[in-house]
Amino acid sequence: MDSSFILLEKLVLFVEKFEISEPLYCILLFEEETHFSVDLIPYHANPKDILFLSPYQLFTLEMTSPRTINILKFHGDFYCIEYHKNEVACNGILFNNIYQVPNVALTAELYEEIMAIMEKIDRLKMSPASYDQSLLKTYLQLILALASKQKMVVNDLQLSRSAYRDVIDDFEQLLEKNYIAHKEVTFYAENYSLSPAVFAKKVRLKWGKSPSKLIQERLVLESKRLLHLSSRSIKEIAAALQYKDKFYFSRFFKKMVGVSPKEFRKQVGLSIVAKKSML
Description:
By secondary structure, the protein is of the alpha+beta class. The protein has two domains: 159 residues, Jelly Rolls (Sandwich), CATH 2.60.120.280; 107 residues, Homeodomain-like (Arc Repressor Mutant, subunit A), CATH 1.10.10. Helix content is 45%, strand content 17%. The protein contains ten helices and nine strands. The strands form two sheets. A five-stranded antiparallel β-sheet has the order 1-8-3-6-9, covered by helices on one side. Strand 4 and strand 5 form a beta hairpin. Helix 4 crosses helix 5 and helix 7 packs across helix 8.
């Protein structure tokens, strides 16, 4: 995969609404306080926050004044976050994390350090005759490592400050074990001896999303993983996720992602991991 699959843009936006939904991983660095949404869920970013998007996530920015955003985009075949999980544990922390906010608060020093790395990437990309692909990957990996470390520090601080405990605190673990076999909210509500309405209220209060939304997002996440990381057919993936047929699965996927499973795989491609398994 050549260096055209890592792109850096500095956008000064004057439009009222700006959207991104691409078959690429995106890293957005905000210079100003920003209100935005990811997959129609609203969030807030402070100045010097960094945001991580997985392929085909919908990012929407509503603006009342100009905004400057630095956007670094890369293809999964340029840097596969799953394949490099032992080097940088960013999958499930920065990307593909349905339970936490997608942006990370950076210190002023860390913001400047990441900005400096992005500028190095830009200079390297501006000299195609002398670019070093391995160096580009190293720069990207450094950004991911720095942000992952900061995200884990922020998570630990938030956990230590939270004195509030609820019966549904282990819902993440329960969902991880059961989301394929049990796609209905009532199963999870009954596990806590709660009515669906009370359970939904508690989940929304803690995670900012309805339980049905979290179940759907977890299924989409696994669907994307299988489409990108395995060479299984759409029919086989539908069966693995316990959908009654591939057509029902395809309709669900397209409704949630905006493209069909076939188109998603075509746009994102098979990862290095999947290609190796075919050899």
